Amino acid sequence: MNRIILHCDLNCFYASVEMSENHQLKKVPLAIGGSQDDRHGIILTKNYIAKEYGIKTGETLWAAKNKCPTLVILSPDFNKYLHYSKLVKKIYYDYTDKIESFGIDEAWLDITHSLQLFKSPILIANEIKERVKRELGLTLSIGIANNKIFAKLGSDIAGENECVTLYNVDKETLVYPLPVESLLYVGKATKKQLNILGIKTIGDLASKEINFCKHNLGKMGEVLWIFANGFDSSEVATLDYKPLVKSIGNSTTTVRDLNTYNDVLIIFTVLADSVASRLREQELFAYCINIKIRTNKLKWYGVQSSLKKPTDLAKVILETSIKLFKENFDLNTPLRSLGIKVSKLTYSKDYEQFSLFKEDSYDYETKKLESSIDDIRLKFGYYSITNGRLLVDRELSKFNPKSEHTIHPVTFNRK
Description:
Strand content: 15-25%
Oligomer: single chain
Radius of gyration: 24 Å
Distance between the termini: 21 Å
CATH superfamily of the largest domain: DNA polymerase, Y-family, little finger domain
Number of strands: 12
Structural class: alpha+beta
């Protein structure tokens, strides 16, 4: 039995939620963006009126304002958007229990067995669209296909509140002519590599030998070849599915340029604390620590180090991050952003290896201390207890990466 999979993508999601709650916003160019004062000033999403002015996701707020002086910019309310995302998934659940989120505003639905109750996939897709619009005031683009990759392609092609079908039988006429960057996981760097190999369209990639793709692009070359040919057989996960987290990270753009080592130490202290807390929440340990910096000239640099023993301690993450910074960077150019990411993760139940030598042993005393801090913050709030180092510059240190920023764990192919 051929699978029938939908990919549902909420149009201009953050902006649509705001317009749903305030109909006056439907008449004006609207964007959701970070705070200019805190230098988190980029466009996260915009409505279709703003799009007509050439405003793009990811550009700075001042650049967007230059294009459209009447642009209304609202700060994001992630709790509200999560609430609406859950309401949308409630509607999906009336049609299938195989629902796999792909970010806050996208999801795959396997409706194969739902066809016993409905006449066609199009009827199901249209009914879902109509209910989401009627009940929540939001619109969807929906792709319908036999696999997740082509379903995603379909929703990308579809216009606002439209459905597009891209079954395997249609791939030569509808899929193969599409630019290769339309394929999931083909970003700028991969597109450049593929173009050098003479691959410009999905059809060009599909027609190559799989060994050619593996030789030139490694494992990802094989994956992309499978995607291009419509051979993706990955299942749509159920709502309670939890993917294996591959990395956890936090980064921040600071309220001012960082000019001294103490400035860097303050920011790394906050970031290391946040990353370690997230590790403990998920009962994970990390073997690899990566730091990333951006100068005020907007140049990014990164470096990483592997640990002999995995850790979930802020103390270890901070010490390693500072060591990496001192060994690889200087402050000849002021810094604007810093980030810490940990990877090569393992579950805590896998880490029970004890050592006879103190220097190689896990620091259980520090674990007790940091876990106690987690408990205090959970009960009394994030700012109820803090590291004394952060009191030196409250303007610089007063941010909470855990709740004030959206953190996306990285998973293999996100399935």
